[in-house]
Amino acid sequence: MDVSDIEKLINDAVALDELHVKYDGSQCQVIAVSDIFDSMSRVKRQQAIYAPLTDVINAGTIHAVTIKTFTPAQWQRDKMFNL
Question: Cα–Cα distance between 83 and 75 in angstroms, integer?
Fold first, then answer.
């Protein structure tokens, strides 16, 4: 599995404006940006990104996942601290 596989899993499940994925073979860092997060709680945001990765996590392909979610306005304000 590589970054493009992870991006495809997430993009096929969630409509995002931007997606940034870093993957080192066992640990995955995801930054997702979308207006859909505007009305979601922090937990629901995490669940929306985590859900499409469940199978590869359960298979042991990905060992750990760090997820950060932003609305486009939040991302404009905070992206310099997160890339």
Answer: 11
**What is the DSSP secondary structure assignment for residue 61, as one 8-state letter?**
S
Q: In which element (H, E) is residue 27 found?
A: strand 27-33
* Number of residues that this document lists for the chain: 83
pLDDT tens for 24-51 read 988 999 999 999 999 999 999 999 999 9
Rounded distance, CA 51 to CA 72, Å?
Answer: 21
| Cα–Cα distance, 68 to 65 (Å, whole number) | 10
The whole-angstrom separation of Cα 69 and Cα 51 is 14
SS3 40: coil
The domains of the chain, with CATH numbers, are 3-72 (3.30.300.90)
